[in-house]
Write a structure and sequence with these properties.
InterPro entries: AAA+_ATPase, ABC_transporter-like_ATP-bd, ABC_transporter-like_CS, P-loop_NTPase. One of its GO terms (molecular function) is ATP binding. The protein is α/β, with parallel strands linked by helices. Helix 5 packs parallel to helix 7. The strands form two sheets. The protein has a seven-stranded mixed β-sheet with strand order 1-11-10-4-9-8-7, sandwiched between helices. It is globular and about 50 Å long. The protein is built from eleven helices and eleven strands.
Length: about 260
C-alpha cells in the first residue's frame, strides 16, 4: 500500500522531513504552535507535544493509529479540549486569551458525528446566523452537495451522511479562517466524499486552511499538502505529504506499513 501511495505523491525533488520538534522550531509562520503541551485524563497522558507546528499554507492531514490522540489534537485548536499544561498559539496569539465563542467562529469544527439541533435544516443554519434568508439557506446546502429542498426537513430525520454535510454547511456559515474536520467524510458515499474533497480544495484556494483527521491514506494524498503523524500521543514527524511518504522516520514507516495500530 505505502509503495503505491509514494508513487501517487507529487513528483519532484524531496527534502528530508524533520522530526516534529525540529520542524516546529524552524517555522515562524505557523498557524498553530504547540509548546510543551500535555493533555492528561486522570493518571493517563493522552497527548504530549513538545514543539509542534501546523503550517499556515495548505491543508494539513493528521494521521495515526486509532486512539493515538489525533482528535484530541484537533479539539485543542478551538478550545473544545484544554491542555493540562503548556501553551498553544494561534497566529502568534496565546489561544487561551481568545474568547471561545469568537475563536470557534474563526476556527470551525466539523464533527465525525454531528448533532442535529431541534427544527429543520434551515433552523440549524439560522442558529449560527439568524440573518440567513431562504436563498442563502439553499446556496449553503447546495454548496455541500445537499438538495436545497432539505431546508424544510427536520434535521433529526436526515441520514448520517446528510447530517455530516449539514454540519459542514453550518460550520461554513461563520466564514471561518480555519476548518477542522474530524473524519469529515466518514459517513459519506464515494461520490459525496469526492464532492466534499473538491469543495475543501476550493476553500483552500480561497484562503481557508483545512486541518483533517483521517484514516484514509488515499484521502491524505488527495487533499493534503502537509501531514502530522501521531503515534501513542506524540507527533513523531511532520512535513509535506510528499516528503513524509518518501522519507518516513522508522516508527512512522512502521505505521505506514500497517505494523502499528
Amino acid at each position: 500500500m505505502i509503495r503505491a501511495l509514494r508513487q501517487r505523491s507529487k513528483p519532484g525533488t524531496t527534502t528530508q522531513p524533520l522530526a516534529a520538534e525540529e520542524s516546529a522550531a524552524s517555522d515562524p509562520r505557523a498557524l498553530f504552535f504547540f509548546e510543551d503541551v500535555v493533555v492528561e485524563r486522570g493518571a493517563h497522558t493522552i497527548l504530549e507535544l513538545d514543539r509542534v507546528a501546523i503550517p499556515i499554507d495548505g491543508a494539513t492531514a493528521i494521521i495515526g493509529p486509532s486512539g493515538s490522540g489525533k482528535s484530541t489534537l484537533l479539539r485543542l485548536c478551538n478550545r473544545l479540549e484544554a491542555p493540562s499544561s503548556g501553551t498553544i498559539r494561534y497566529r502568534g496569539n496565546d489561544l487561551s486569551t481568545i474568547e471561545p465563542t469568537e475563536l470557534r467562529r474563526r476556527v470551525a469544527m466539523v464533527f465525525q458525528r454531528p448533532t442535529a439541533l431541534d427544527g429543520t435544516a434551515a433552523d440549524n443554519l439560522r442558529e449560527v446566523d439568524p440573518t440567513l434568508n431562504d436563498d442563502d439557506i439553499e446556496v449553503a446546502l447546495v454548496r455541500v452537495g445537499l438538495d436545497g429542498a432539505l431546508a424544510k426537513r427536520s434535521a433529526r430525520d436526515l441520514s448520517g451522511g446528510e447530517l455530516q454535510r449539514l454540519g459542514l454547511a453550518r460550520s461554513l456559515t461563520t466564514r471561518p479562517d480555519v476548518l477542522l474536520l474530524d473524519e469529515g467524510t466518514s459517513a459519506l458515499d464515494p461520490n459525496s466524499a469526492a464532492h466534499i474533497e473538491q469543495l475543501v480544495a476550493k476553500l483552500t484556494a480561497e484562503g481557508i486552511t483545512p486541518i483533517w483527521v483521517t484514516h484514509d491514506f488515499d484521502q491524505l494524498v488527495r487533499v493534503a499538502r502537509n501531514t502530522l503523524v501521531v503515534v501513542a500521543g506524540r507527533v513523531l514527524q511532520h512535513g509535506t505529504v510528499r516528503d513524509v511518504l518518501a522519507r518516513p522516520l522508522p516508527e512512522v514507516d512502521r505505521f505506514l506499513q500497517g505494523e502499528v495500530g
